[in-house]
Amino acid sequence: MSERVLSLEGVHNFRDAGGYALSGGERMKRRMVWRSGQHHAATDADLDRIAALDLASVFDLRSSRERASHPCRRPPEFSAHVVLCADPETRHAAHVAASKASRSDGSVHAR
Q1: Rounded to whole angstroms, what are the CA distances from 17 to 76, 105, 111?
Q2: DSSP-assigned letters across all residues of 15-55
Q3: Distance, CA of 47 to CA of 11 (rounded, Å)
Q4: What CA–CA distance (Å, rounded) separates 16 from 5?
Q5: In Å, what is the CA distance from 88 to each residue of 12, 38, 46, 92?
Q6: Are 34 and 6 spatial neighbours (Cβ–Cβ below 8 Å)?
Q7: Which pTM value belongs to this model?
Q8: pLDDT digit string, tens, across residues 87-105
Q9: pLDDT value at position 76?
Q10: Residues 6+ apart with CB under 8 A from 12
């Protein structure tokens, strides 16, 4: 393992968030917070290495659509608490929202 990255075959960008500077001059503790890409392509060897980290919690920041299309593989005895984030509200850029606004006669206008 490099200083920060856990090299895995099927999980990209799995890295330790520790070591970064915090306000007040302290540093975030190493091996306490990890981040990664999705685990749908994790190999069995990847799962063994992840299990060795003994994670307590997982915060899955993907949308429900992403989770459904690429379910996460977990180690066999995985017992960490998994927090699934709610889907964000769909919002359009201002120019798209304006183009969708309709007049009382049903025509669409831009602002």
Answers
A1: 25, 55, 44
A2: EE-TT-B-GGG-BPPTTS-EE-S--TT--HHHHHHHHTT--
A3: 10
A4: 6
A5: 24, 18, 30, 12
A6: yes
A7: 0.71
A8: 887 776 777 666 666 544 5
A9: 86
A10: 36, 37
